[in-house]
Design a protein that fits this description.
The structure is a homodimer. By secondary structure, chain A is mainly alpha-helical. Helices cover 67% and strands 7% of the residues of chain A. The longest helix of chain A is centred in the last third of the chain and has 21 residues. Chain A binds a DNA duplex through helix 6.
Chain lengths: 148, 148
DNA sequence: CAAATTAGTTATTTTCCATAACCATATCCC
DNA sequence: GGGATATGGTTATGGAAAATAACTAATTTG
């Protein structure tokens, strides 16, 4: 209804790119949560599993750097995924402090299905943007990311 | 150093706009936290104060809608700002359930200074983008936001 | 006027994120 | 070789953020 009026109150904040990024991101993350619910995955378990699939043998500490999650907080995530038999920890024989993380067959199937669904749902959100728009957006976001 | 190698592990996730949005947003929000620290403001107190300045007399429930924060969670925020004498609650005489929120002189000065600093710091992050790039980005983000 | 709605609040829970401290193993370097 | 130092994973803990249920006072609706 009166979306204009309501949202007008945040006119000051709308001057900030950070604010707009957050609003846009909220749409994606709310959507992501919905899409992942049937798979009993959250954003962080999804990201973790997807990364392990892409980089089998990756270590928890590497995962921590890549996903920008503190090491301690990843332990429970990895535990959970292992308990559900989606990934497994294998002792590294060269460095016996470390584990390599590997997907199981189940985990692999699950994440591929989930990835596809996430893809589909993102496409819906972005339906009003052209391919060029999306490429442009991706590029701009990448430039922001690499600017630091 | 080997940023390429490390970040390469998230190649799967990089296909998602949502992931890139989150990464970009993280840069802004980490920066924002730093800029606001000297003012003893957090993102949420900053947004609240800025909105009250722009819309004096706004109600907590309106604020809740605008900022997408649950009502109960705003109570403590407003309490805090009021305790610090940055805003005040004034009973609405037409509707005596409600309060209007108004900035104090102190609050107004503080937020204007903070807003300026945030502006400056955002500009630094966006230094490598042209004005056109920024306009383009803003427009794309707005389109995403209004697509739902 | 009774019922339903709205504004604000309290209380509580869950999740998220960060920090400190620890054990086991590996590396450094004298 | 062996002690100091660093690294990988873990435990424990606390604070901040976000969500829900339920309550009160006041207003609106029928």
């Amino acid at each position: 209804m009166n979306n204009e009026i309501k949202n007008g109150h945040d006119a000051v904040l709308r001057n900030f790119i950070g604010y707009r990024l957050k609003r846009a991101m909220n749409i994606f993350s709310a959507n992501l949560a919905n899409v992942l619910r049937p798979y009993d995955l959250r954003m962080i378990t999804f990201s973790t599993l997807a990364t392990v699939i892409h980089s089998p043998g990756i270590r928890l500490s590497q995962l921590s750097e890549v996903l920008a999650v503190e090491r301690p907080n990843l332990v429970a995530i990895v535990d959970e995924l292992q308990k559900r038999a989606l990934i497994e920890r294998k002792r590294d024989q060269q460095d016996r402090r470390a584990f390599g993380l590997f997907p199981t067959e189940t985990g692999s199937k699950l994440i591929h299905e989930a990835l596809h669904q996430v893809d589909v749902s993102e496409a819906k959100i972005l339906a009003s943007l052209s391919q060029d728009d999306i490429a442009q957006l991706t590029q701009l976001l990448t430039r922001i990311e690499t600017s630091v």
